[in-house]
Design brief:
Blueprint: H1 8-57, H2 59-63, H3 67-75, E1 83-90, E2 95-99, E3 116-120, E4 123-132, E5 135-144, H4 150-161, H5 164-181
Antiparallel strand pairs: 1-2, 1-5, 3-4, 4-5
Length: about 180
Amino acid sequence: MIFKNVPIQRQLITMILVITVAALLLTCTAFFAYEFFAFRQTTLRELNTLGEIIASNSTAALAFDNRADAGEVLSALKAERHIIGACLYDKEGNLFSHYPASLPIGAFPSSPGEGGYRFESANVVGFQPVVQGNRNLGTLYLRRGNPLGARAAFELFLRLNEPPAEAALDAQVAERDLVVER
């Protein structure tokens, strides 16, 4: 036995330490698993909401076959830095407009797919029907870059490990900057 010649006090301390470390590891694993799945669900829900908003704002452009207005609606996605591509398809399934304009047309699916959003390799992608009343006008495609890429994970790590005083100061500066930009 490992503890044969070790005093009982040392054995008890070692056992308590091992049990505590095991419980801590189990708790951390459960916490990170929960956060991972909650984050995925939140990302899908946020992209779905954004898709509904853009699809709703695109109805007039598709109904009146106005590509310029469709491009303008899609260009509003520049405010969402994680959106790396979006396009609108008309009711026949032809590419109508895309964002960003610099992205080649071949970067988008050739035809719209099923509605809904899903994780696909390093991106979240999905299709949102564009409807007005009972009339299907087309489909919106959104592609969001991996929100937990290496850089984002590193920034999150740094943010969680900075002293609380610096975090509070950063929050005050960000709030001040937000007020100044309005």
